[in-house]
Amino acid sequence: MKRLKIFLYLGLVFLAYPSWMEARHIPPIVSTQWLNARIGDPSLTILDVRRVEAYQEGHIPGAINVYAGAWAYKKGVLFNEIPDQAELNETIGAVGISLSSAVVVVGNMDTVREGYQTIRVACTLLYAGLEDVAVLDGGMNKWVKENRPLSQKVVKPIPREFQGRYRTDLFADKAYVKENLGKIILVDVREPAYYSGEKKLDCVARPGHIPGAYNLPTSCAFNSDGTFKTKEELLVIAESVTGAGRDREIITYCDTGQCCPTWHFIMRELLGFPRVRIYDGSMQEWGADERAPVTK
Prior knowledge:
CATH class of the largest domain: Alpha Beta
Largest sheet: 5 strands, parallel
Strand order of the largest sheet: 1-7-6-2-3
Radius of gyration: 20 Å
Structural class: alpha/beta
Helix content: 25-40%
Number of strands: 11
Mean pLDDT: 90
Shape: globular
CATH topology of the largest domain: Oxidized Rhodanese, domain 1
């Protein structure tokens, strides 16, 4: 009987453990020490998403460069939508990345905005079907501060044909959000003044937030030096708005779709929340629809 209980317990643990976490071979957030020890590893792609000028001044040896702006597209009036699958296939294939590649995305952390642009690229690769995608904790700022090796050699990757296995379940559109108001946990990751409607960007038609949304600012995920807070701290912060019911569906949004991938990435990839989506149209799309409710 005791042995049976043990088997039942292990079975429950297995069922509770997200399948995509099993597929990972690298952690979702890697340290500078971890990455430094793997420079030259042919199984690892270092993707530098800074502007080409910054890349040319000095980058992690072996890193390839594709600016973060190449991974988000303007569609109509919306600023930051996921690329069309054919275009994304071309972008990923051009830098020699395959579905089996392990990729560490590296950017700057001079501003919080640069940090979440880096994470958006990581989420885009996950959407395309890669499993081993990570971001460098502290970005190039921490790398340089620690006097780790730099190179000015421009790396020219060998292109390959890429066909993604697209994870459409990672994104939600406006219609889905509307249909499920009151059933899903909406997480507004903007700073409090924008969430409350005290401030708004010019590209957002109406101030305020989607009714029922909780406020979880992107900046809360980071320390003052641009590194992530500890996993334990991030879990406490996430559960302050999601509660202990991690199995409920969670949708993150922001102003234009740039920063909402940050908490999506943290909750899904690091903390193991199984049902987290991004509404990339965000308040830019929602606020422009007069039939979509907004509250302050």
